[in-house]
């Protein structure tokens, strides 16, 4: 819809569009030979920028063209009322000169953001202590400072018919696979929703499998981690209002990697990575192994161990599978309470709750000491995984494996892992296998172990990069 040449008529049109909101105002500036109208939401504009760069310059030189007078960085001409409305609700000021239909959209948004701080969800042992914040432009600025290359490509999208959330897709030209990038951009363009809560909504709309037991996208708040994955040929998605970024495509092994692995000695980093993978299997199978051995195959254990466990279970009221599930449930309740409450209170509840519940259930002969130990080790093993999504998946899937073990013993345990392996092998992310790269040849150098940096000459295959060579021989 075209604006009217009359400033007052344009104001009435805009006021109707914003539902006669009280904070929408018009500032009229009348001069001898001309008249200006400024339309804006007074709760959204920066008053200093508004006065110093718009009102004062026009007052000093009202006869000159708007482009020559207004000293503001962001300025755009428009002859569409709908575009002006979208600019106003974002905090911009719309300027119109009486008798003209051209609207000037001026960037006067009030920008309030928190300072760049250290990552809170991903602890930094060594390396940069910078974390993303809720401002999209600041996040892109941090990435560009870390990758000062003209090949860093940023593409913007608007998602949400009501929220109009800005989304940025970043990739490295010449490294990232253009086919993968096109698939990601196409899925973003197909999103039709009124409000986009990032990154959760975005992830569920673009991931390969709608109903997946394991995470298919990696989320991080660390700038150095996003930079490292960009240089490997992956794509990073940022959203306005989200202090985390989404990285894709990723493989199963990406969820066990940490930026700290590359800041320490290669063999220490390899030991820590192997420890995380081992804890993944412990978190999945330890409760089921305990239930199957105690309920069915006790003869597999050494005699002294079997007698000790049987003696501990002699006066226990609950069945082994029930006591394990009860302890895992109590562990999840304590974890959720610790996360949701304030930090000092949460720490106190986690310590006191663990001691009280553990002591009470053992002394009341509801749960054996062995079940408490199994549940504790299972919880610790899941917490060591760097990815919160993968850790949560482990804690939920181990309940299914425990039930199969309670029904069929060790056969059920082995069958559960067999089905889980088949499921993982069949999964894809952005058309690439979830278990890619394989554990043969040079692919194993940065999957289950972390080889020396000078051995990692080629980029990982999981993102199918166009430029596979990372560097030449650096230790001549």
UniProtKB/TrEMBL annotation:
Family the UniProt entry places it in: Belongs to the GerABKA family.
Protein name: Spore germination protein KA
PANTHER family referenced in this protein's UniProt entry, alphabetically: LEUCINE ZIPPER PROTEIN 4, SPORE GERMINATION PROTEIN
Keyword annotations of the record: Membrane, Transmembrane, Transmembrane helix
Record Pfam families: GerA (PF03323)
Signal peptide: none
Native species: Paenibacillus qinlingensis
Membrane-spanning parts: 274-296, 316-334, 341-360, 366-385, 397-424
